[in-house]
Amino acid sequence: MAEIQTNGRAYESLLEKVLSMNILSSDYFKELYGLKTYHEVIDEIYNQVNHVEPWMGGNCRGPSTAYCLLYKFFTMKLTVKQMHGLLKHTDSPYIRAPSYIFNSS
């Protein structure tokens, strides 16, 4: 299956640099190393994501859960079929959201 091609830039440069650095250093993102499959990441989105803003709200100004999971998808190099699966997923709008962010990056 063909891997999704980016616009020629490395995935590290698809997000704002400060956001990328904060994602990479966040404890939550480090916990995501344990998720090895596309389906495990989708399950994590379904169970943990409740907004798709890049930053957490309130007094905690770390990267959001949604953007940490988006970055996890960047590192997984999704296939075209997997991307279509995200676009058409019916369980939660938060599962579809990363595919729209991918396309706007």
From TrEMBL:
Signal peptide: none annotated. Its main location: nucleus. It is found in: Nucleus. Keywords: mRNA processing, mRNA splicing, Nucleus, Spliceosome. Pfam families: PRP38. InterPro entries: PRP38. PANTHER family: PRE-MRNA-SPLICING FACTOR 38A-RELATED (PTHR23142). Required for pre-mRNA splicing. Belongs to the PRP38 family. This is Pre-mRNA-splicing factor 38. It comes from Camelina sativa (False flax). The gene is LOC104719352.
